Amino acid sequence: MKIALVSDTHIPASLARLPDELLQQIEGVDAILHAGDITSSHVLDVLAKIAPVTAVTGNMDPPELASKLSDRELIGLEGRTIGLKHGHQSHGVQSHYISSSYDSPEMEIFFQLMSAQLPGADIIVFGHFHRPVVKQWNGILFINPGAVAPAHGDCSFAILNLNETVSVEIIPLAIS
What we know:
Elements: E1 2-6, H1 20-26, E2 31-34, H2 41-48, E3 53-55, H3 63-66, E4 72-77, E5 80-85, H4 94-98, H5 105-117, E6 123-125, E7 133-137, E8 140-144, E9 155-162, E10 166-173
Parallel strand pairs: 1-2, 2-3, 5-6, 6-8
Antiparallel strand pairs: 1-9, 4-5, 7-8, 9-10
């Protein structure tokens, strides 16, 4: 099973529409997971023409969109449980994460929180930081596909392949 992982599209604030490059590269996937900061329901409509979409709300999603989405999802696919959550937290330590490397002590707290918020997940897909990562932590595979919208660096998305084994590819987008 081939799954496109996208996050932080920020349409239309950062981009007028989803990039053709992204749409072409995810053509033929079996499912799409969007980890929040969608900011326009039109994004979900466009993605749904490609494959079934599961999405969660992010901290920048307007109330009319956020009211239609959950802040987290647990999805069973190919014998694995995938947790999907944007990644923003409602407590004061949140601001420390943004500038941290994924190997920092602050991110250890983040991974603990996310695994507690998505119990039973084998794989956790998140966004918010606009920086891609694939990291194994305490038996859970954490994936941030990066941001589709330009903000704090290069733009990217990911492809998750679920077969007998799990593989992830972070794919850069030529957006500036």
